[in-house]
Specification:
This protein is an alpha+beta fold. It is built from 13 helices and 13 strands. The protein folds into 3 domains: 114 residues, Alpha-Beta Plaits (2-Layer Sandwich); 96 residues, Chitinase A, domain 3, CATH 3.10.50.40; 188 residues, Trigger factor, domain 2 (Orthogonal Bundle), CATH 1.10.3120.10. A hairpin with a 2-residue loop joins strand 8 and strand 9. Helix 6 crosses helix 10 and helix 7 packs across helix 10. The relative contact order is 0.11.
């Protein structure tokens, strides 16, 4: 077999594969051996009929397609490997017969989507926004308060009226114009006061109620309420309170600090601050690096093939699936609920996928252009750090490492060097983040068990 490679439109290459008559004959024989058990001919046991008999009985082209598949599959991978310095395939090829195909002129033409080249207008000397996030005392106290609340113990109370943040068990009947309306009544409903589950005025008017008390609450439905018939209408809810449950939040003292694995309150406060500062620093780095790539991308172009976009869209969906599962929903069930397919839904992320691909192409292009590499000494230092963290000698630890771990370390070093280079060779400026930009990562965090992240 020999072949030619030619660039084609929209980031594809055309591979023209030429096979000899001998290779074609061998492929046909293999197709016969692999598929003869599928066919029966009178006078022969199944799978024992000679090839020429099967072709007379079922048609001369019986093994034609199978032979083509064998020729292509056994040689296509070798071509990709030989041409790996020339192009990188990013999707399945479309295959067709060459012009004037015959048993003496066996030619297959594969059109393969490949990773595109990216043209970058400029990647140095650009003015780029740098992000810097800090941690305030208020955020530290907010995180501590959230941790205390996550360790609260709920208990029924009967010696006082309901207060905000209590959970009350109630019956209620809602009426407009003196008549009950659909969805306006319930029995034994648990409502946390201040949660905002009900329309404005409802929860606030339950404050001060005592167990066994019945009270009429006057409210007005918002003008933007979802039920058309209730928009802007006054209503009266007759509410009976059956039970009050309060959260007993532990005080911030040394005992609580010990529970959070800190020596005392001040040590715990310092621990929380340290965690939030690490998050803020990580966010600063991530958003600055993204800002750099977006600035470079403004002057970058690449002809991204559909196969590459499709793969990236699928990757985005896979990243979303754990979020659905955390809410107890399978993505497929959600897609069925909204009446769409996975293929249709992922097209919503085409712009995001295109952006992610372009950024990755930019990274790879600059690394290659600037010849950014990881030295063996740098890799060894990182390995030694990891070994030390698990109490092992570096040499012993490296022997147990998967080659992919070494590759990951190498790539991490290269990416760090890349962004060091880009920060040094561009003009970065900072702005004070607006209040609305306060990072969610700096908010208090508690895990599913109600224990604060360490």
């Amino acid at each position: 077999m020999n072949y030619e490679v030619a660039n084609a439109e929209k980031s594809t290459v055309k591979l023209t594969l030429h096979f000899t008559p001998e290779e074609w004959k061998a492929a046909n024989e293999k197709a016969y051996r692999e598929n003869r058990n599928k066919y029966t001919v009178n006078g022969f046991r199944k799978g024992k009929a000679p090839k020429h008999v099967l072709e007379m009985y079922y048609g001369r082209a019986l093994f034609f397609e199978d032979a083509l598949n064998i020729l292509f599959s056994e040689n296509y991978g070798d071509v990709l490997e030989k041409e790996q310095e020339t192009f990188t395939a990013v999707g399945d090829p479309s295959v067709a017969l060459g012009e004037d195909f015959s048993e003496e002129n066996i030619v297959l033409v594969a059109t393969t989507p490949v990773k595109p080249d990216v043209t970058i207008g400029k990647y140095t000397g650009i003015k780029i926004k740098k992000y810097e996030y800090t941690v305030t005392d208020a955020e530290v106290e907010e995180a501590i308060d959230a941790a205390r609340e996550s360790h609260a113990v709920s208990a029924e109370v009967s010696d006082r009226p309901a207060q905000m943040k209590d959970t009350v068990n109630i019956d209620f009947v809602g009426k407009t114009d003196g008549k009950e309306f659909e969805g306006g009544s319930a029995k034994g409903y648990d409502l946390t006061l201040g949660s905002g589950q009900f329309i404005p005025g409802f929860e606030e008017n339950l404050v001060g109620m005592t167990i066994g008390e019945t009270r009429d609450i006057d409210v007005v439905f918002p003008e933007n309420y979802q039920a058309e018939a209730l928009k802007g209408k006054p209503a009266v809810f007759t509410v009976t309170l059956h039970k009050i449950t309060a959260k007993n939040i532990p005080p911030l003292d040394d005992a609580f600090a010990a529970k959070m694995q800190a020596e005392n309150v001040e040590a715990y406060r310092a621990k929380v601050r340290g965690r939030l500062e690490r998050r803020a620093a990580s966010r600063s780095v991530n958003e600055t690096e993204n800002s750099i790539l977006e600035a470079i991308a403004e002057s970058a172009t690449a002809e991204i093939p559909d196969a590459m976009l499709d793969r990236q869209e699928e990757s985005i969906l896979k990243r979303m699936e754990p979020n659905f599962l955390q809410q107890g929903i399978r993505m497929d069930d959600y897609l069925n609920y909204i009446g769409t397919t996975r293929e249709e839904y992922k097209k919503n992320f085409e712009a995001e996928a295109r952006k992610e691909i372009l950024h990755q192409l930019i990274i790879e292009k600059i690394i290659k252009t600037e010849n950014i590499t990881a030295e063996e000494t740098e890799i060894s230092e990182k390995v030694a750090e990891q070994a030390k963290s698990v109490g092992k000698e570096a040499e012993e630890y490296r022997k147990t490492m998967d080659p992919r771990q070494i590759e990951y370390i190498e790539n991490d070093i290269i990416i760090s060097k890349l962004f060091d280079f880009l920060q040094k060779n561009n003009e970065l400026y900072t702005e004070e983040p607006a209040a609305s930009e306060a990072p969610a990562e700096n908010k208090p965090a508690a895990d599913a068990n109600g224990t604060e992240e360490k």
